[in-house]
Amino acid sequence: MISETAKNYVSVNQIMGITRLIFNSGQFVVCVANRDFDNDETKLEVKIVKKSRGPGKLKKITSFFHHKMMRKTTNRTINGVEYEIEKTNKEEYGVDLTFDGISYRCLNSRRQFSIFTNDTSSAYNDLLRHIFDVFPNKTPLFFLDLRGIRAENFVISQDLLCYEQVIQTPCLAMGVRCNEFVEQAHTILESMIELKNLNLDIELEDMEFFHPRMSSIDHLTVHYFKNQISEDNFLSLNCETIKLWSANVSPKSLNFFIKQWLLTESRRLRHLEIPILCLDPEEKQCLDEVFDGLTTIPFDGTRRVQFYKKYDWNYEL
């Protein structure tokens, strides 16, 4: 929404860079900051609105008055293409955070825009190119969230993974909700060269999604929808923290995992959590099988609570 002179100034100085890209359903969120001082962040929320075609006379009249009286739009060039844009909201706010015992305050601003187009796919691609052109700082993103991305709007390998800042992102969230997206999901995981934190939403029918990167990632969180994770894949997990929501795991697999952890000399695994455990209905649904061959005692809060600390880690940090 600013002048071409201002855009060129920001681009040439290369101080401002993208920190986060978030794809929500029908909305695209870009966070930018001075990459020499990341505490102050600006959030740009862009909604791509598909124009309706061939409205009736009454709708045309209503839209005309709504446009004149309510909406304040302007035409702007994005990646060489002219779009109708509406600036809908501006907000300033601060967030108090504590990290490694240090308290600080992030000063954030929020801008909301709507882009009206007949071709949503081209609008997304033009917007991506425009954003990386205006904010070309090569520092990797903090966070890439693809859980709300619509595959019909992107060929992710060529439209998104072509940017160096994206493939070096250490923190990725992704949803795998249809069989048609599985191949793209594998391509994304193979392309992320500096990945350390992975958050997956998996909701597939009649198949298991697993990629070798899931075994060696530092921090793995998977939200299953009662999907199965095979014994071989479960036992292959060698992460620092593992959190599996609603995972369908057999008692035997859990038993093997615990025994394997007790016998290994590796101290890499720091935390395993399965908040909602779905035991395989074909197996004996009994904790006796989970603890078979293990020496166990009931948890006594008066004896052990002082030594136990909930492992709570900030996903993005």
Automatic annotation (TrEMBL):
<dbReference type="Pfam" id="PF07735">
    <property type="entry name" value="FBA_2"/>
</dbReference>
<feature type="domain" description="Sdz-33 F-box">
    <location>
        <begin position="214"/>
        <end position="274"/>
    </location>
</feature>
<protein>
    <submittedName>
        <fullName>FBA_2 domain-containing protein</fullName>
    </submittedName>
</protein>
<dbReference type="InterPro" id="IPR012885">
    <property type="entry name" value="F-box_Sdz-33"/>
</dbReference>
